[in-house]
Amino acid sequence: DYDNLDKIIIGVVGGDGIGPFITKQAQRVLEFLLKEDVKKGRVEFKVIDGLTIENRAKCKQAIPDDILEELKKCHVILKGPTTTPRAGDQWPNIESANVAMRKELDLFANVRPVKVPEENIDWIFFRENTEGAYALGSDGIRVNDDLAVDFTVATYEGSYRIIKAAFDYAKKSGMNKVTVVTKANVVKTTDGLFLDIAKDISKDYPEVEWDDWYIDIMTAKLVDEKRRSQFKVMVLPNLYGDILTDEAAEFQGGVGTAGSANLGKKYAMFEAIHGSAPRMVKEGRAKYADPSSIIRAAGMLLDHIGYTDKAHRLQMALDICGDYEKKLVLTGRDNGATGAEFADYLMETIRDD
Amino acid sequence: DYDNLDKIIIGVVGGDGIGPFITKQAQRVLEFLLKEDVKKGRVEFKVIDGLTIENRAKCKQAIPDDILEELKKCHVILKGPTTTPRAGDQWPNIESANVAMRKELDLFANVRPVKVPEENIDWIFFRENTEGAYALGSDGIRVNDDLAVDFTVATYEGSYRIIKAAFDYAKKSGMNKVTVVTKANVVKTTDGLFLDIAKDISKDYPEVEWDDWYIDIMTAKLVDEKRRSQFKVMVLPNLYGDILTDEAAEFQGGVGTAGSANLGKKYAMFEAIHGSAPRMVKEGRAKYADPSSIIRAAGMLLDHIGYTDKAHRLQMALDICGDYEKKLVLTGRDNGATGAEFADYLMETIRDD
Ligand SMILES: CC(C)[C@H](C(=O)O)[C@@H](O)C(=O)O
Ligand SMILES: CC(C)[C@H](C(=O)O)[C@@H](O)C(=O)O
């Protein structure tokens, strides 16, 4: 619990491409909101450089050792997008830094809320974040020219803790409804385990209604405007969570509008879920990149470490400026205003609050 | 090629639940359209009973040997929905009959068209149908109480032939656009192979534009009303195909509206993509089940074996009756008319054509 800490250390990881530019703006906003607490020594920011694709490629590590050590000295982390090497491009076959960080810091719960108030949509996804199709990362086996194998791994503990977290949240929040999403009719061993555990856990939550659907049907159900608002808390193995949350975010305005919380027992990491947009950097337009998604992630971070009120004020300012942003075409794509100007405007809005 | 055959044998497999009821109606419609050819001995129907969950459970086989033998005597198959055993329910851990049939008859291409004319959506999905996450079926490994593993398998040949089929179709149809969907940033070995092969094949089709996206982002892109009609031919590994086609069908009116062609070098199987609805049978309402989806599949079958004109006439009648059906609430759910009455009405509509 953060209340018992003398000092909360917030790591700030810029990442690749536009990452350092937008992360910098999110840090400014956090510093603005936490000014007093920084002065009192309650909060400290620690900028961690070097989690770049060039550096990772040089070390041939998804997260170089010295950076991992730095990360482990923080209590919570705000992370910009990191470039993931693609099969066949110029980088070595290293794992995504995102995926590696989730595993190394045991951030087992990827929690992604999606809200569309006009439609009564209030979804919260609990995506398992450390195993499943992601467990062995780059370590599939290319048996020979003709044959390739990848592995999906589920453990009892890994499945248990994410499902438990979803049921706990459903109960605590009063949503009282959990939907378990698997493909247990085909991926029978790992997803079968996941579903069995869900059945067991559900017995301890008589007040929480629950159902289960296969991922294929679930992607269709989210499209169904008449019925989709019935879903509340959803819990899914890693890959299905990856897929379904991107679809879901689109109803809210796109992945650019969604922040993502990666939570573990010891650490927590908050990130934007869009990419590093290397093209913007190449074209010299990085300073125009829209920082609103990572600022939303910063808001989730504030809430997580106990600054509920500040998180709320930031959220309100973001909602106001988001509309403003749309109206005045302040987005990076149109070069209307820089990320720094957007952050300035946002801070003024908070100040006036 | 079917033109060179003396006689085309059409296998009709009822399956489970409402399957035999709706398949019967589809067979009536086919017999009506092919009356002359049946008389001349050009076409023969062969009803294959016993592909039921009870029988499969008794034999502990996804497809009992004697039924498989019968299936192999047919040239094309019309198949009703079959119940897939669920982890933990009363059935033994056998594979889905669908999945087994695709593998046993080597039906490597699952082709699913989705059209929304008002929106200019004209998608056609080429789903790899025999390997990927489906390769080993029930044969994951439950290492111990704590650990479960499933396997994803891709072969060069398996990936090659489905990607080639997609590019061929894109070229032949004049669509000239292929989108390759993988998760090669995480499932690096098998999806990496798939993407590499796509890159190679694309070189032989200079006139076909192509791009590639990850499955998570792709589910979001299909939601984007402004841009989704840009997609034409899509080709995907098995599991992503399963997921994305269900989402896509929803824009067209739901899985109930989509037929599915499972094509191989030697055999072809056509099916509805909805389930067996055991509850309707239990409640004595099976005769009210809506047969329009399997009749659509029957239309794809007609087209496939060379009866293009008859397929077209059936399609037109279905479109007319589909609207009528909606208006007069003829669907099974509402017990407005039986499946047989719907088929009667449909045949009258064709006759009047
Ligand atoms: C970049 C990629 C490896 C990552 C994932 O697959 O988890 C991303 O899609 C996400 O959802 O955070
Ligand atoms: C029933 C199930 C095994 C099947 C699949 O996963 O392929 C179905 O969803 C489909 O798309 O035909």
Structure description:
The structure is a homodimer of 353-residue chains. The first copy, chain A, folds into two domains: 1-107 and 264-353, Isopropylmalate Dehydrogenase; 109-256, Isopropylmalate Dehydrogenase. In chain A, 42% of the residues lie in helices and 20% in strands. Chain A has helices spanning 19-39, 53-59, 65-72, 97-104, 156-173, 188-202, 215-221, 238-252, 278-282, 292-304, 308-327, 339-351; strands at residues 8-13, 43-48, 76-79, 109-116, 121-128, 141-144, 147-155, 177-182, 209-214, 233-236, 259-263, 268-272. The first copy, chain A, has a ten-stranded mixed β-sheet with strand order 2-1-3-12-11-4-5-10-8-9, sandwiched between helices. A two-stranded antiparallel ribbon of chain A has the order 6-7. The longest helix of chain A is centred in the N-terminal third of the chain and has 21 residues, at 19-39. Chains A and B meet through strand 7, helix 6, helix 7 and helix 8 of A and strand 7, helix 7, helix 8 and helix 9 of B. Bound molecules: 3-isopropylmalic acid (2 copies). One 3-isopropylmalic acid sits between chains A (84, 96, 98-99, 242, 273) and B (185-186, 216).
Mean pLDDT of chain A: 91
The N- and C-terminal alpha carbons of chain A lie at a distance of 29 Å
Number of discrete helical segments of chain A: 12
Q: Order of SSEs of chain A, N→C?
A: EHEHHEHEEEEHEHEHEHEEHHHH
**Which oligomeric form is depicted?**
homodimer
- Ligand kinds: 3-isopropylmalic acid
What is the tally of beta strands of chain A? 12
CATH homologous superfamily name of the largest domain in chain A? Answer: Isopropylmalate Dehydrogenase
SS content category of chain A: alpha/beta
Portion of residues within helices of chain A: 40-55%
Beta-strand content bin of chain A: 15-25%
Radius of gyration of chain A: 20 Å
What is the name of the CATH class of the largest domain in chain A?
Alpha Beta
Task: Write the CATH architecture name of the largest domain in chain A.
Answer: 3-Layer(aba) Sandwich
Largest sheet of chain A: 10 strands, mixed
Shape of chain A: globular
Low-confidence stretches of chain A: 327-333
Strands in their spatial order, largest beta sheet of chain A:
2-1-3-12-11-4-5-10-8-9
CATH topology of the largest domain in chain A: Isopropylmalate Dehydrogenase
Largest Cβ-defined interface: A-B, 62 and 62 residues
Number of domains of chain A: 2
Keywords (chains A, B): Oxidoreductase
Organism (chains A, B): Iocasia fonsfrigidae
InterPro entries (chains A, B): IsoPropMal-DH-like_dom
Domain Isopropylmalate dehydrogenase-like (chains A, B): 9-346
